[in-house]
UniProtKB/TrEMBL annotation:
PANTHER family: BIFUNCTIONAL POLYNUCLEOTIDE PHOSPHATASE/KINASE (PTHR12083), BIFUNCTIONAL POLYNUCLEOTIDE PHOSPHATASE_KINASE (PTHR12083:SF9). GO terms for cellular component: nucleus. GO terms for biological process: DNA repair. The lineage of its organism: Eukaryota, Metazoa, Ecdysozoa, Arthropoda, Crustacea. This is PNK FHA domain-containing protein. It is found in: Nucleus. Keywords: DNA damage, DNA repair, Hydrolase, Nucleus.
Length: 524
């Protein structure tokens, strides 16, 4: 009889998940699994392990089917897995293997066909549960596992190669793809982990010269494909090891696997390097450099514009001198580049809150205020700090559930003699019209407060909230794009008594918060 059963992620996005004996275990989109796709429900699949028969029953709970050994399992249906069987938590995505410990005899699993059985090269040892932890009995949150010079935090957001490499005050930092290497195939994206070549013949010699001059060579690379399951940890690790061998100099590497604080242009990787991987030696920024191809360069001739600003902004956030690969390796003159439209360093905290300055709150004996602005433009903060303390009742779809409920709350509050603020994005005519008409039926004037915060400024605010640990849900770019596509500038003809512009005034708890806010957090 087995004593343990694990659900192991083939892409190593997370540590194996224990499936207790005869206790249903529901998995899906969560921090535990690192699954972020909305195709995957938070309650996607229920797994029930039976240690006596070494089987796991998978019952589909989410609307999008899972796949067990290549067979789709639809909503409400079940399928059985044996030792080493494969389940895709969402069909074609997030492959996991069932592993019993100790493993059942070969005869009991002879009829079980697994992906590894058909794809593993002859002679390669099958992965066991111990391969996921340096010490599986003692692995705890926050600890790291290390193999062959690689270390990975248990949440998998950062991979580090040669963490204990000798320290230096002079750092030559590099992006990887498009900076040190290009695809051998000539395609934009590599077709395999072997599809690469050194970008320029001058690269190895340049790195060797810097190394001989006392520089520590460090790669900082974004590899979000690991977090989404497009790439495997093992594949990227082997690729990087091959690249370093080809370059012929010692190199320390930091790999961001997701879209959080470690992803450039945010400086999580740099901070980890300073605090954990340079032996306590302070870096001399004036003597150090960073090189990358995501530099905000415009299109020129047949060459397309850079896909983002992330490398240039990463260097700017850290305080490093920045060079493109052409400038650094080929000694070309400084190349033209653009900066993002939104610059967080220029956000003015001294602006007046309202325009016009004569704006009064409350403006009438009884009134309704409709807020209009992007997600992350500061509406809810403004509402809670400037309106609710004055007795306004806040109606918000995110907390109440629907616009119909917002109207019901508005009508009840107005009858009780209370001001109301509609705290939603309200981008278009129809979304505002329903509240204006309801207020008119109550004989109450309506004002519109527009938040003068651009799309990118709002995206920056949302990213800042994520990094600073505030309790806010992540907002995808799709939501920002949808708001922009629906937006219609409010006018008095809609029935507003007046229209007020609200400026975004940042507030910080401390200097560290302000320092983070003033950094570039958006890569494009």
């Amino acid at each position: 009889m087995a004593t343990r059963c694990w659900l192991s992620c083939l892409a190593k996005l997370h540590p194996p998940i224990l499936l207790p004996h005869n206790q249903p275990r529901v998995i899906g989109r969560s921090k535990e699994t690192k699954i972020k796709s909305k195709r995957c429900s938070k309650s996607q699949v229920e797994l029930l392990a039976d240690y006596t028969s070494c089987t796991v029953t998978a019952r589909q709970l989410g609307p999008n089917s899972c796949t067990v050994n290549g067979q789709h399992v639809c909503y409400g249906s079940s399928a059985q897995l044996k030792h080493n069987d494969i389940i895709e938590v969402v069909s074609r995505e997030y492959k996991h293997r069932v592993e019993f410990d100790p493993a059942p005899s070969i005869s009991s699993t002879a009829n079980s066909t697994t992906e590894e059985d058909t794809t593993m090269p002859r002679g390669q040892k099958k992965r066991s549960i111990d391969d996921y932890f340096s010490n599986p009995k003692k692995a705890k949150a926050g600890e790291t596992s290390a193999t062959g010079g690689w270390e990975k935090s248990t949440n998998g957001d950062l991979l580090v190669y040669q963490k204990n490499m000798s320290s230096s005050e002079k750092i030559a930092g590099y992006d990887m793809d498009g900076t040190l290497i290009a695809t051998q195939s000539g395609k934009v994206f590599a077709t395999s982990y072997d599809d690469w070549k050194i970008l320029y013949s001058e690269v190895p010699g340049k790195l060797k010269k810097l190394h001989d001059s006392g520089y520590k060579i460090v790669i900082f690379t974004n590899q979000a494909g690991i977090g989404t399951g497009k790439h495997t940890v093992e594949g990227i690790q082997k690729k990087i090891e091959s690249i370093i061998q080809k370059l012929g100099v010692p190199i320390q590497v930091f790999v961001s696997t997701g879209k959080g604080e470690y992803r450039k242009p945010a400086i999580g990787m740099w901070n980890f390097f300073l605090n954990e991987a340079n032996g306590g030696v302070e870096v001399d920024l004036d003597k150090s450099i960073y090189v990358g191809d995501a530099a905000g360069r415009p299109a020129e001739g047949k060459k397309k514009k850079d896909f983002s600003f992330s490398d240039r902004l990463f260097a700017l956030n850290v305080g490093l001198k920045f060079y493109t690969p052409e400038e650094h390796f080929l000694d070309v003159k400084t190349q033209a580049f653009n900066m993002p439209d939104f610059d967080p360093r220029e956000v003015d905290a001294s602006l007046p809150l309202y325009d016009p300055l004569t704006t009064k709150v409350p403006g009438h004996k009884l009134e309704v205020i409709i807020l209009v602005g992007f997600p992350g433009s500061g509406k809810s903060f403004f509402c809670s700090t400037h309106l609710v303390p004055l007795g306004y009742v806040s109606a918000n779809r995110d907390t109440i559930g629907s616009w119909q409920k917002c109207i019901s709350l508005m009508e009840k509050s107005l009858k009780d003699g209370k001001h109301v603020v509609i705290d939603n994005t309200n981008p278009d005519l129809d979304s505002r019209k329903r509240y204006i008409e309801a207020a008119k039926k109550c004989g109450v004037p309506v004002r519109c407060f527009i938040f003068a915060t651009s799309k990118d400024h709002s995206r920056h605010n949302n990213k800042f909230r994520e990094f600073s640990g505030e309790d806010h849900s992540k907002v995808s770019d799709m939501v920002f794009n949808m708001y922009k596509s629906k937006y219609v500038e409010p006018t008095l003809k809609e029935g507003f008594h007046d229209i007020v512009k609200v400026n975004f005034i940042p507030h910080f708890k401390n200097k560290s918060e302000e320092k983070l806010y003033r950094m570039f957090l958006l890569e494009k």
